[in-house]
C-alpha cells in the first residue's frame, strides 16, 4: 500500500501539539506524495495546513478506528505508536476508571494516586484459577498466570 492510499480525505491522524502532546485531526484533501503540506481540520473544525516533507515533519501517525478505542490489550490496536498508546490508556483510565491495560503479556499500570477498591478478597477469588485474558487486565491475573507457569515448570522437573 502506498502513502497516497493511506493519507486520503477523511483519514484520521495524530499531530504533535506543544500543550496536549498529541492532537487528533482529519485529512480534508487527498495527499499526493511530495506535497509540502497536508490539509487537515482539528476536532474543533479549525483548518490546518500541516507542513510535511523530508526536511520538515514526517507524515503524521494514523489513528485507530473508534471500535478499538479503549481496548484492554494494546496489541489489538491496528496502529501501535506513542499517540495510540497514550490515547488508549487515557480513555481507559478517564472514561472507565481502568488503571490496568495489557500489552501482550506485559501489564501497564497507571497510578491513580488514590485508594481503589480493586484488591479485596472477592477480587482475588474472581481471578483465582482463571487464564490471563479471561477477565479485565489486573495484577492478580498476572500473578495467577505466573503461579500456574511456576507450578507447571515444577511438575516437569
From TrEMBL:
<comment type="similarity">
    <text>Belongs to the TRAFAC class myosin-kinesin ATPase superfamily. Myosin family.</text>
</comment>
<dbReference type="GO" id="GO:0000146">
    <property type="term" value="F:microfilament motor activity"/>
</dbReference>
<dbReference type="Pfam" id="PF00063">
    <property type="entry name" value="Myosin_head"/>
</dbReference>
<dbReference type="InterPro" id="IPR027417">
    <property type="entry name" value="P-loop_NTPase"/>
</dbReference>
<dbReference type="GO" id="GO:0016020">
    <property type="term" value="C:membrane"/>
</dbReference>
<dbReference type="GO" id="GO:0005524">
    <property type="term" value="F:ATP binding"/>
</dbReference>
<dbReference type="InterPro" id="IPR036961">
    <property type="entry name" value="Kinesin_motor_dom_sf"/>
</dbReference>
<keyword id="KW-0505">Motor protein</keyword>
<dbReference type="GO" id="GO:0016459">
    <property type="term" value="C:myosin complex"/>
</dbReference>
<dbReference type="GO" id="GO:0005737">
    <property type="term" value="C:cytoplasm"/>
</dbReference>
<keyword id="KW-0518">Myosin</keyword>
<keyword id="KW-0067">ATP-binding</keyword>
<dbReference type="InterPro" id="IPR001609">
    <property type="entry name" value="Myosin_head_motor_dom-like"/>
</dbReference>
<dbReference type="GO" id="GO:0051015">
    <property type="term" value="F:actin filament binding"/>
</dbReference>
<keyword id="KW-0547">Nucleotide-binding</keyword>
<dbReference type="GO" id="GO:0007015">
    <property type="term" value="P:actin filament organization"/>
</dbReference>
<protein>
    <submittedName>
        <fullName>Unconventional myosin-Vb</fullName>
    </submittedName>
</protein>
<feature type="domain" description="Myosin motor">
    <location>
        <begin position="69"/>
        <end position="157"/>
    </location>
</feature>
<keyword id="KW-0009">Actin-binding</keyword>
Amino acid at each position: 500500500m502506498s502513502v497516497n492510499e493511506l493519507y486520503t480525505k477523511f483519514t484520521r491522524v495524530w499531530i504533535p501539539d506543544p500543550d496536549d502532546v498529541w492532537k487528533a485531526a482529519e485529512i480534508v484533501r487527498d495527499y499526493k506524495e511530495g506535497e509540502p503540506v497536508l490539509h487537515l481540520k482539528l476536532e474543533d473544525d479549525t483548518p490546518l495546513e500541516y507542513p510535511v516533507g523530508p526536511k520538515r515533519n514526517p507524515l503524521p501517525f494514523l489513528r485507530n478506528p473508534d471500535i478499538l478505542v479503549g481496548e484492554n490489550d494494546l496489541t489489538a490496536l491496528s496502529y501501535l505508536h506513542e499517540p495510540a498508546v497514550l490515547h488508549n490508556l487515557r480513555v481507559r483510565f478517564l472514561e472507565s476508571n481502568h488503571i490496568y491495560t495489557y500489552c501482550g503479556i506485559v501489564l501497564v499500570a497507571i497510578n491513580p494516586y488514590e485508594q481503589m477498591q480493586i484488591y479485596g478478597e472477592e477480587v482475588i477469588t474472581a481471578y483465582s484459577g482463571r487464564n490471563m485474558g479471561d477477565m479485565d487486565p489486573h495484577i492478580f491475573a498476572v500473578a495467577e498466570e505466573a503461579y500456574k507457569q511456576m507450578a507447571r515448570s515444577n511438575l516437569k522437573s
